[in-house]
Structures
1.
Amino acid sequence: MANCSKIILGLFLIIFAILCWVLGIIMYLILGLILGFLILSFGYYIIFSWFIPGISKWVNYLTEYQSSQTLIKRIYYIFFCNFFLAIPLLATVLYILNPSKVVVNTQLGLSTIDIGVIVALAIIPGLLLILRLLSNPTRRGIIWKVHNFTIMIIKSQYTGSLPVNNQTPPEIRKLKDDISSFYSTLIFGTLLYIVIQFCADYFINGSYSQFLSRYTPSFPLIVIICYIVAYLATLILVVIVGELILDYCEPIDKK
């Protein structure tokens, strides 16, 4: 009887030790997951708490016409603002094109990401010009007509209510807020998806190689330099043309 009690007690202690070991492993995994979740959560917060105010500030700056500045100074500040906004916009356009896998066009000798970079660099100056011109309604318009037939509206004339006591009309304020929130949301949402995809690729593949290969162009260095120089020259010309248009058409809401 005594030997049977010892055997039962021994089995109980073994089972208890195994349960403690299993529970210890489970708690270790849970604590590891909690730590990982906390790192990711605070990482997202730190990244976007820096990005969101900065991007919002740059976008809002483009929606305001600084009449107190000279044309040269305004061109300088707008170009500076566009230059930094172009970085998240580049990521946005590339993600929208979504090159899920690298495919090479044999006729052009370009991969999907190469084509995506070319398209992004080509349209980003236009996106920034749209933001600048549409968010600043003007007293005059620029319309190209041939025999009273409208060919192109370069800048339409604002026909709503005018400022009273230097107060921005509600229609213009709403227009500025709508355009600003659209661009900001487009950039923020895309950056969030890119970060999530970055983490997902790491957990799936155990490395960042697939993510990096998806968004790394295969151009030679000299070609990349040529594209960057051409893009910067285009951006400068677009900024100059945009500011000349606003200067001529006279924005209604001035700061």
2.
Amino acid sequence: MEDKTVDYYITCFSTESGKRVLANLLMEANLFECSHTPEEQAVENFIKMILTKTGKFHKDNVDMMIEGFINLPRIERKER
């Protein structure tokens, strides 16, 4: 039997609500912060697994990911 997991992840996260859920998962996992504890690293690895299950978060896509990343608008970091 063919594994349809990647298809299910793509279907889920391709909708507007799925994109919002994925964005929320990334924010809740503090993906944009450094991880300092084994627990934080475990959460980061879990998020990487979710992204990998989409079939798009892969080293073979690194050039396209960097191109998209570089073209994002720059956000000035606020001093804390």
